[in-house]
Amino acid sequence: MAGVQVANVSRSFGAHKALDDVSIDFPDGGFYALLGPSGSGKTTLLRQIAGFDFPDSGRIAIGGESVERVPVEKRRIGMVFQNYALFPNMSVADNIAFGLSVRGEPRATITAEVQRALDLVQLGKLGGRRPHQLSGGQRQRVALARAIVTKPRVLLLDEPLGALDKALRVDMQIELKRIQREIGITTIFVTHDQEEALTMSDRIGILRDGRLVQEGPPEEIYDRPQSEFAATFLGDANIFRGDAIGGGIKLPDGTTISASSGASVPAGAKASCAVRPERIQISTGAGKPGSGNANMLKGQVSKRIFAGNNSTYFVDREGQTLKVVVQNTGAERLSEGQPVVLSWSPESTVLIAA
Ligand SMILES: Nc1ncnc2c1ncn2[C@@H]1O[C@H](COP(=O)(O)OP(=O)(O)OP(=O)(O)O)[C@@H](O)[C@H]1O
């Protein structure tokens, strides 16, 4: 096994910088999600690591060894893409065996390794079938088995679950994570789906316009986003903008918001505060706001969206619409047009430099 180090990698296509000085350390045996909007450079970065494309500058190492001059087939990387191209005229077992056959492994070794890979992806009895006789999820498992049967050092996954419907996708997320843990392979996973990134990975890197915006464990990025972009791209956030004061900001209407974490911003400079919708308490104002909720604003409910176990309230105040998510516990519902008080703690508030 091996970690992957990407250091100061840049890659341009004409005048367009697809990757701009990106450095990431992908830990040995870790599950790392690359997240970012369309065109942010996720696939380009994966292609540099695989060796399908080469950086204009910067270094890439696998297991501590520089791979800039190492061709794709010698990098010992397994890959699965959204459009898994299985050979339609070959059986499942022959599809999986392909890489081993090309390497000239003995017949007995191939048979044993293919069976092990089939068992690992829980398709032990389906080796004799053709790809068209499998479901989408099963075909994706075959693609995964084919990628890992050669015992690669690194597994690259580019939207591997993108073609699956929601229920199957969730099943495959669990499955993929189990397999990754079982073989302990360094995995780099590209996804559009922020929930998938949050639930599956040990670390997340967020790319935007070819630059790494922030990276770290999922909880850290979610709880302490360093930019408005990271706050709103990974999860939902209410953003308040104003002028920095000690330990928070002052909004244009004079209201102050206290934040106990985030950037240190000199007083008077432009800054914002981010607050997750589930951290805000909403009440009719009849009772007192929760203790420790030093931040308080008045507003009016403009809409409520029911989503089964929770509801989202949209609350208007001073030309801004705020989102508040509450668990549906059977307590009284707030109706549209109702005046409300929002309150939350400084610990739930992150200060962000403009
Ligand atoms: N071979 C190429 N020639 C020219 N431009 C390219 C090439 N490959 C990628 N690009 C451009 O580089 C940018 C990054 O592309 P990339 O495929 O890495 O984005 P992505 O984050 O993977 O997007 P998506 O989520 O849509 O797959 C895009 O603007 C894309 O158009």
Bound molecules: adenosine-5'-triphosphate
Q: Please state the overall shape, judged from the principal axes of the Cα atoms.
A: elongated
Supply the helix-strand structural class.
alpha+beta
Distance between the termini: 41 Å
What's the β-strand tally?
A: 21
What is the helix/strand order?
Answer: EEEHEEEHHHEHEHEEHHEEEEEEEEEEE
Strand order of the largest sheet: 6-7-8-3-9-10
Mean pLDDT: 92
Number of helices: 8
Percentage of residues in helical conformation: 10-25%
Task: Report the sheet with the most strands, covering strand number, pairing sense and barrel closure.
Answer: 6 strands, mixed
Uncertain spans: none
Task: Describe it.
- The chain has about 350 residues and is α+β, with helices and mostly antiparallel strands.
- Helices cover about 25% and strands about 35% of the residues.
- The chain has helices at about 40-50, 90-100, 105-120, 135-150, 165-185, 195-200, 220-225, 230-235; strands at about 5-15, 15-25, 30-35, 55-60, 65, 75-80, 155-160, 185-190, 205-210, 210-215, 240-245, 250, 255-260, 260, 270-275, 280-285, 295-305, 310-315, 320-325, 340-345, 350-354.
- A hairpin with a 3-residue loop joins strand 17 and strand 18 (about 310-315).
- Helix 2 (about 90-100) packs across helix 3, helix 2 (about 90-100) runs parallel beside helix 4 (about 135-150) and helix 3 crosses helix 4 (about 135-150).
- It is elongated, with a radius of gyration of 25 Å.
- The mean pLDDT is about 90.
- Adenosine-5'-triphosphate binds near residues 16, 18 and 36.
